[in-house]
Amino acid sequence: MKEVLNDLVKKLNDKIASDQTYAKKLQSITKSIDIVFDDKDSYYFKVENGHITEPQEGKIDADITVTVSSDVFNKILSKEINAMDAYMKQQIKIKSSLMDKLLLSDLLKA
């Protein structure tokens, strides 16, 4: 899953570099995101000053914690399923504030 996350982060950083509106939206945000796949593999990264850091293996006490199967995550990224639908069906669990859930939703749409 690290390769999938690396691709996602690259895509997001490319969008930040090419889309001023998107970049401005993320400019003042500092959040950490921990994603746990299949209840075993965990990766984290940060949104800092309009940039998304490279994913690292391990678990941290993050602002946003996502628990999801690798299959569902891949389907969300490929737009086979909508992240909100997966959330409502409890296929993806997110521990965060409402504002952070909106941020995550925005990141997954990129």
TrEMBL record:
<dbReference type="Pfam" id="PF02036">
    <property type="entry name" value="SCP2"/>
</dbReference>
<feature type="domain" description="SCP2">
    <location>
        <begin position="11"/>
        <end position="108"/>
    </location>
</feature>
<dbReference type="InterPro" id="IPR003033">
    <property type="entry name" value="SCP2_sterol-bd_dom"/>
</dbReference>
<dbReference type="InterPro" id="IPR036527">
    <property type="entry name" value="SCP2_sterol-bd_dom_sf"/>
</dbReference>
<protein>
    <submittedName>
        <fullName>Sterol binding protein</fullName>
    </submittedName>
</protein>
